[in-house]
Amino acid sequence: MAISSACFFFFLCSLFLSHGVLELEASHHVDQINLQVSSTTPPKYQPYRTSYHFQPPKNWINDPNGPMVYRGIYHLMYQYNPKGAVSANIVWAHSTSTDLVNWTPHDPAIYPSQPFDINGCLSGSTTIMPRGTPVILYTGINPQSQQVQNLATPKNLSDPYLIEWVKIQNNPLMAPSSLNQINASSFRDPTTAWLGPDGIWRVLIGSKTDRRGLAILYRSKDFVTWIKSQHPLHSAKDTGMWECPDFFPVMINSKLGVDTSTLGRDVKHVLKVSLDDTKHEYYTIGTYNPDKDIYVPDHGSVESDLGLRYDYGKFYASKTFFDSIKNRRILWGWLNESSIPIDDIKKGWAGVLAIPRTIWLDKSRKQLVQWPIAEIEKLHGHQVDLPQQVLKGGLSLEISGVTAAQADAVISFKVSDLGKAEVLDPSWVNPQVLCSKKSASFKGSLGPFGLLVLASKGLQEYTAVFYRIFKGQNKYVVLMCSDQSRSSLNNNNDKTSYGTFLDVDPVHEELSLRSLIDHSIVESFGGGGKAVIAARVYPKLAIDGKANMHVFNNGTENVNIASMSAWSMKKAQIS
């Protein structure tokens, strides 16, 4: 629902006149936090730095904040420590792009400067107001260590790069008190706001009461005065703190994205939360009633490890935004480290962001589908193809001719004889545990088969991404695994294996697998994006030109390679 021009003008006036602004000069900010100071100088040789995933030149990065598009320019803001490779001194760093692949840095958009955020600027979101004006809602920490919600606006709307932001004097707009019974240490990460059919704005804040996770709902007529609802939009017992909530509509029977305020019979709604206790994210698909401001999940759950997840590997604190240029919804996420902090300090950086993913509702309406943005394919270099062939049990094929440490590999398998599939034990309900027990070296019947990436010459090191097919009670069950158990000879790294059951019917469908390999990242998409597993790995042998890639089948039965293509990836321009 659009606001009239008069109301829109009043909104801007209320922000900049009635409530005032606190101007923050970028040059003053640089002096204040001393951006040149770093706890260590990164070494010149960096075999693990990524080439086409987003990361700053050095230091710590975590949550993506407020991704958006404004006047044809994509904006990415993210939690960043300008002083070192550990989580401290966090500011909202800011970069822009015209293609979501190559990025130009700017001065931080937000940093601690006022009583309402002097002890920290945590995550938040951008909202595109009527007529395209962006604003930021973010969490600050005040001198009493309370988490409060604040508003910042662009200083110059004619600047497509939005270099400078100002904070209104009326901050904080939402704060804990004895009256609202909000947990002052667990009240953070406002979502993108949406406009209801009644002309009132809504926003969610993550929180908890005891062990009950909450998506606290606030309403506002002018985006400045916010009133807490008597009930949360949604909650769940025994889930702990809900960080980085995200709430957005998805189209039924269409891959197109829609604005966050879209309602109607042709959309469902998605609620995603990041669980602070487990550092896992879960989402549900359900029905939103705008009259009662209640959300009821139809599919998925946040109450157990069997719920729906964007990514079953190293992926957290994600945020989506509506790309109005190409009418799609794009998902950003943080790929946190598998290396130990002392190694992060030595290499001078920690954390990267996942490849931006287009996200839409599957035709089953029971889950979401994700796929790397098409723009990433502009980095495709030399291509290698394998012909259709049978891959016999116990064999592997090396894929030569590509830069295996920096590649995009896509393969599809077809299994003709499913009758010899191993019977699925009813107790095997946790796919991650099953992937750990049945690693890539554990021979089965139909599987494991898939890709060995970042593999050393003698296979002392490799990361395996693969499938196994089991015979369930009424159908065949496909298990997708990302096995890091042999990813590195460095045993200080987290080498957890990840896995999920994939909703694909191997009787009628090929099993497709796409892996984006980028030095210390293996980001894999199964079943055309029905399941995604991101891994962070640090091999000691399989680095740069010493890395190799194989297609393998460690099962006893043959599988057919229906198609296989791999590309060397060019380096993106990220500074």
Automatic annotation (TrEMBL):
Glycosyl hydrolase family 32 N-terminal domain sequence ranges: 53-372
GO function terms (MF aspect): beta-fructofuranosidase activity
Start and end residues of each Glycosyl hydrolase family 32 C-terminal domain: 392-568
UniProt family annotation: Belongs to the glycosyl hydrolase 32 family.
InterPro entries per the UniProt record, alphabetical: ConA-like_dom_sf (IPR013320), Fructan_Metab_Enzymes (IPR050551), Glyco_hydro_32 (IPR001362), Glyco_hydro_32_AS (IPR018053), Glyco_hydro_32_C (IPR013189), Glyco_hydro_32_N (IPR013148), Glyco_hydro_beta-prop_sf (IPR023296)
Signal peptide: 1-23
GO CC, alphabetical: vacuole
Phosphoprotein keyword on record: no
Organism: Quercus rubra
Compartment list: Vacuole
The protein's name: Beta-fructofuranosidase
